[in-house]
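Continuing the batch. This is chain 6 of the set; chains 1 through 5 are on the previous pages. Same settings as before, nothing changed between runs. Recording input and output for traceability.
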Amino acid sequence: MVGYLNIILRLTIWFLLTADFSVANIIIGISIALLLPGGKTGRESLKDWVRVLGEIMVAIPQAYIEAFQIILRPHNHEDITMEQIKPGRTPGLVFLDIFLITFTPKTVVLKYHEEGWYEVHWVRLRRKV
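Output for chain 6:
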């Protein structure tokens, strides 16, 4: 089941990049999704995928809320923080974590550290002291 989720994720990324649903492009996308390495990892569980997909569903309205916050009250303070990766993350789940962090307008992952950390850039409201 998890292998199918990896293929669906790869196809979704392919279609987002190409924006072309022709038969030839679908065949190319399926071929690329199947030929990319790393599709046979069994360490990720269906539970992890369901949790991450639930987090994506929460991130969509959060992204709109943050966009309106930035429009209405410009955020002019920036921070860079290090956030630890959850243990046992496979490359597919690491990608989804980075996607979740970067999807919202106030945060972007600057760098993925192999030691288990994300370097995250934040845009925040500066509090008046």
